[in-house]
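Backbone geometry:

***
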Amino acid sequence: MLLVFVLLVGLALAEEGWLSRHLGSKSPYPTPEAEPLWVTCPLVQVHLVARHGTRYPSEGDTASFDDLYTIFAKLSKQPKYGWLHNWTNIYKEAVPTSLSSQGELDMYQLAQRMSAKYNAVLKSISFEADSISMLSSETTRASRSASAFALGLLEGRGELGPSRLKTLALNTLPRRMDTFMAVKYACDYWLEVVQNNDFRDKQMELYGERHLNETLMRFWHDLGLRLEPTDLTQIYRLCAYEIAFRNQSNTWCTFLTRHDIATLEYLDDLEDYYTYSYGNPFNLIMGCELWQNLITSMQETVTLDAPLAATFKFGHAETIQFLATLLHIFQDDEPLLADTPPQVIRHRKYKGSQLTPFGANVIFEVYQCAKTAKDTHVRLLVNERTIRIPGCEADVCTLEQLKAIRKDALGCKLKDICTMKKVESRQVAIQWKHDL
């Protein structure tokens, strides 16, 4: 009997682990095993670009969760769904899209891991000399994420209170001027053209028609519920929040099969793919000023006697998306479409669950054997896992090579690009060539 119980618990944990990796941009952060530093040359600089931690749903999502409960409440008489008796919509108790306590913990723990890993750099710097730069978008969830991160990073390194804290200056930019962390709001062309994408909407509609009807029929046949496709997407989203906030996969997630989850995950990815990534070639340049800023800081390890030791930037899921797209990471050989074959969908590289979970991050480690660009090396980590940058010959790339890979993005002026009267923009489904 004990063996059966242990097996059931093990299966439940395995299922929850699988779910957590397939919930799109609302996935909880997948804390990885620590990766050792590169040992060939000393580490001299670290750069972090992070998404904010776990946040509360939007006002619209929260209202839709109430609507779902109204539809499903009658099932509470069935033993399998008895949990509906006690379920409450906790998400309307806070300001919509605000950072949650779990989100604060996401950032604090990330900082603790980075503090331990990069201790050699942090312990050797003078904080009074402004050797660390911190920046966030103007949203409170991003700035609070930065604050929680600073607590974890500097705990034990100062003299404030029993935890020996230290302070760091945090800079923010007004939304319409922020070409680093909230860049979409600073780009009129993106707001007017890329965001309003008929081709994206058609692909999502076609995919939904082909793959969600079976699930809708199952809800009607098994539960007597007539649902719309939007109800399924909201169940998927509520399932994600239940895991992110309550660590519970035994409530709303139980209405969805693995096949349902995978289908809804791809539908979610189609939306982000065409809105923030490779689905529109214009997105290849949206991260150019952020990239230019990072390269400038890396170059200063060669040109300055006392360059910054670290930069920490906090933004949003699209911040990570635009930067990843500029670097061509997680890019598939063919565009993602409604009729993409199932085996290609299963093995696709582009997955929001892996790229932009809550607390997602991109880290650049800068190593230096000598103060020249060819002797300065950079390693990229996405969510604390090493990723080879396309165009680099190895996981660690020379600064010289890195600058050459997207040299076209250096010197860009996003304001000029975004205010052009006419911008050449082709649907990537028609011509799959990245020449921007």
Remarks:
- The CA atoms of residues 278 and 325 lie 6 Å apart.
